[in-house]
Amino acid sequence: MTPRPFGTLPNGGQVMQVTISGHGLTASIITLGASLQDLRLEGMGHALVLGFPKLDPYLGKGRYFGAVIGRYANRIAQGRAVIDGEEWHLDRNQDDRHLLHGGRDGCGTRNWMLADWDQASVALADYLPAGHMGFPGAMLIRATWSILPGPVLMLTILATSDEATLCNFTQHSYFNLDGSDSIADHHLTVPAKYYLPVDAEMIPLGRPAPVQGTHLDFRQPVRLGDRLDGPRIDHNLCLASRRRIVPRKVATLQAGQLAMTLRSTEPGLQIHATEHLTPRAPGHAGRPYSRHAGIALETQLWPDSPHNPGYPSALLEPGQLYRQTTAMTFHRRSGS
Asked: Family assignment (predicted)?
C-alpha cells in the first residue's frame, strides 16, 4: 500500500505509515521507531497489539510501543562498556545512571527511512553515526516487516558497523489477543529454565537463577491473572547461551480461541506485564490503556552483557552482519 502521512514531529519531520496485508493478517507500520502501530486478524474486531491512532502519544507515554529498539536494547549498567579493550561512556537516559534502549536517541525514538514496500512487506532503514549515544562505529540498520502464510508476521533486522561495537535489537510490542482491558485471562508458556535476577534499578545481579519455585516459571501454561498481583514481571528469561541462525519457539500466548506462537533467533526473552501503564491517550479501541493492558515479549540478548562475560555476547565486529529473525504465528484453536 502507498505510504501515507501519520503525523508531524516537533522538528518538522514527517512520520509515514505503511499498511501491509496477506493471509488474513493486516499490519500497519510507522516510520517513527519502525513501529508496529496496529495488527489485525481477519474475523476479529480488535487490534492484537497496543497502539494509538494518532502520533502524539508515541512522543510521550506511548514511547517504544511497537518500536524496533537498539542499538542496544534493555540496559547497560552505569552507561559504561569496554569494547576491544577501550572503555566507552554511553548515554545515561535511565535516571541519569544507566543506558536504556540505546539512549535518548535510540532507534526506537528515531524516524526511520522507508526503503522499500509492497503488498505484504515493508523495509525501513536507519543510520547511526560513530559516537552516537556514545557507541563506537557507524551503524547501518535495516528492519523488514513481512506477512507470510500461517499467517505469520515476521521481523528481520540486519545491521553492520565499520568499527567494533555493541549490537542488540528487540521488538517492543505489547500484545493483547482478546481485546479486553487486561491480559489477566491470557495464558503464557515459555520454555526457559532460568532467569536473570535484578536489583531495584532493573540491572542484572549476575548469574542466572532457576525459575522453579518463582513467579517467572512459565514452563507450563500460566494464567497471567494468577501472577499479575504478585512480584513485578519485568525480567529476562534465559532461553539459550547464544544466538541461533534458525528461529526456534520461545513463547506461546493464548487468549480464548486465539493463540500466538513466537519464534526467534535470540537467546533471551524480556517479559514485561505493563505494570507502569496509567490511563492516558485513547488507544485503538477508543479508550485509554490501564495497568496490565498488554504484555511485551521482547526477544533479545541478555541485558547488561558488557559487564557479564558469561552472557551471550553483543559484540559486532567491523564488516560482520548482525541478523535477527522474530516471527509471530497466529492460529485459532479448535472449536473456534
From this structure: Belongs to the aldose epimerase family.
Hunting for cell 502519544 — which residue is that? Answer: 57
CATH code for the domain in which residue 212 is found: 2.70.98.10
Residue 275: predicted pLDDT: 80
Instruction: Dump pLDDT digits (tens) for 40-80.
Output: 999 999 999 999 999 999 999 899 999 999 999 999 999 99
Domain span at residue 64 reads 4-332
- Annotated catalytic sites, by residue? 172, 298
Quote the number of domains for the chain: 1
Distance CA 238, CA 231 (A): 19
Cβ–Cβ under 8 Å, residues 264 and 171 = no
Question: What's the sign of the alpha-carbon dihedral 165, 85, 105, 57?
Answer: positive
Report yes or no: 67 and 73 within 8 Å, Cβ to Cβ: no
Burial (CB count within 10 angstroms: exposed 0-12, middle 13-18, buried 19+), residue 129: exposed
Contact 166, 306 (CB under 8 A): yes
**24-29 — which CB contacts under 8 Å span 24+ positions?**
24/151, 25/147, 25/151, 25/152, 25/153, 25/330, 27/145, 27/147, 27/153, 29/122, 29/124, 29/145
Query: Half-sphere exposure (CA, 13 Å, Cβ side) for 195?
Result: 23
DSSP state of 322: E
Q: Is-above-0.90 flag for pTM?
A: yes
Contact yes or no for 71/168 (Cβ under 8 A): yes
